[in-house]
């Protein structure tokens, strides 16, 4: 029996690549040579090593806005983009707060919330999650994840703290993600797991279509998961 | 300009005394000699010293369910109530999850949420806040407070972490409470403050009708605060 759902957000609930590409094209001007999708991919590639500086204990917890701001200059340099004013750099970092949900998400979350507690368990901090929820009309019962645990997935604290905060048994708590590695870590801590196929997360043909390992549920999208849970 | 509101909950948003009295009367049987309001008061009086064991650093953080469960035997003894089965004791602790909001709260929170981010900043933990919100139809953007900061008000972390999590300046963050001491602590950390009169919090004639010190807003109830904020 599943009582609570905790969600990965970037890629699972929101389409970060299209959103960042749209905002980069808008904010960096109408340069026809900018491959905005590649720009989004390049920025996203710096995400894991940036988080690793915190996960490793090399520095105290800093939030994702800080990490994205730190990695942006190298992404701009990689694309040969110079002379970007500070205000535009800040606005680019804020673009991560202006991403759109995948089309199936708002209605499916409403259905799921009728019978379960819902919370993001993302590497995004509280304000980032709040802004994405408000933009897309998503209602959560709480915001868990990096802001709550002051660390980054897949560190154990993120999964353990999510279970503790919602107060059900680990197996009654369902980690929902489009990323098999996140689910494997959740399963290691006893959570139930649901894989959501997001075949276009990294652009056409770039995303997990099926889980790489055993999961409790495998779903085509979030509406399919709501069907499977009887919501 | 106020951008976010963070709320004390017990006494400010929910009527803990009537709720605990109702549940005590129900769960401890139809004993006409039980003064259920006095029972609620006695349990509540053990709240501050229990939290102090965490605030002082004498023990690691434990949540309010744990503290209430620990103090319950002495409250029962004080009232000469013996032989209470463990299941009833557990249900009494859960009574704190089944409190009703003051009548003005649900509609006023809906109005306030149209223009502000809202979060409890209570000594209650995440699941306790989630249960009270669900029971009363309250929508928050995040759950802050003891579960987020792993400590209890009025420790500085509760006020600082609430500001950090929502990402506005301290003065743009409004601490809302029916307790002047909570507001004085919030003001010390630069937050704006709103006092809500709850003259019946501790029963007829038992509650703050006005703030004991300077506040940014003083309101008759939460609807009055929404009026004053132009919501």
From TrEMBL, chains A, B:
Gene3D superfamilies given in the database record: HAD superfamily/HAD-like, Putative phosphatase, domain 2
UniProt cross-references to SUPFAM superfamilies, sorted A to Z: HAD-like
InterPro entries: 2-HAD (IPR006328), HAD-like_sf (IPR036412), HAD-SF_hydro_IA (IPR006439), HAD_sf (IPR023214), PGP-like_dom2 (IPR023198), S-2-haloacid_dehalogenase (IPR051540)
Top-level taxonomic group: Bacteria
Hydrolase as UniProt keyword: yes
The keyword Hydrolase belongs to this UniProt entry's keyword annotation: yes
A Pfam family hit: Hydrolase
EC number: 3.8.1.2
Keywords associated with the record: Hydrolase
GO molecular function terms attached to this record: (S)-2-haloacid dehalogenase activity
Signal sequence annotation: none
Catalytic activity reported: an (S)-2-haloacid + H2O = a (2R)-2-hydroxycarboxylate + a halide anion + H(+)
Record NCBIfam families: HAD-SF-IA-v2, HAD_type_II
Family: Belongs to the HAD-like hydrolase superfamily. S-2-haloalkanoic acid dehalogenase family.
Function: Catalyzes the hydrolytic dehalogenation of small (S)-2-haloalkanoic acids to yield the corresponding (R)-2-hydroxyalkanoic acids.
Record protein name field: (S)-2-haloacid dehalogenase
Protein species of origin: Methylobacterium goesingense
């Amino acid at each position: 029996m599943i009582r609570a759902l905790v969600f990965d957000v970037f890629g699972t609930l929101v389409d970060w690549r299209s959103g960042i590409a749209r905002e980069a094209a808008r904010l960096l001007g109408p340069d026809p040579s900018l491959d905005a999708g590649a720009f989004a991919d390049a920025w996203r590639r710096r995400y894991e090593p940036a988080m690793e500086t915190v996960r490793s204990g090399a520095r105290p917890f800093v939030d994702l806005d800080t990490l994205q701001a730190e990695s942006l200059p190298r992404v701009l340099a990689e694309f040969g983009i110079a002379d970007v004013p500070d205000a535009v750099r800040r606005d680019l970092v804020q673009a991560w707060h202006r991403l759109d949900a995948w089309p199936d998400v708002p209605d499916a979350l409403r259905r799921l919330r009728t019978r379960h507690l819902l919370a993001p368990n993302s590497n995004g901090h509280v304000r980032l999650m709040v802004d994405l929820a408000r933009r897309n009309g998503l209602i959560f019962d709480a915001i868990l994840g990096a802001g709550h645990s002051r660390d980054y997935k897949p560190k154990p604290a993120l999964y353990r703290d999510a279970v503790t905060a919602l107060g059900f048994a680990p197996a009654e708590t369902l980690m929902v993600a489009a990323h098999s590695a996140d689910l494997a870590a959740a399963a290691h801590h006893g959570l139930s797991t649901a894989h959501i196929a997001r075949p276009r997360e990294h652009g056409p043909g770039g995303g997990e279509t099926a889980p790489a390992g055993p999961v409790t549920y495998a779903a085509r999208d979030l509406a399919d998961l709501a069907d499977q849970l009887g919501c």
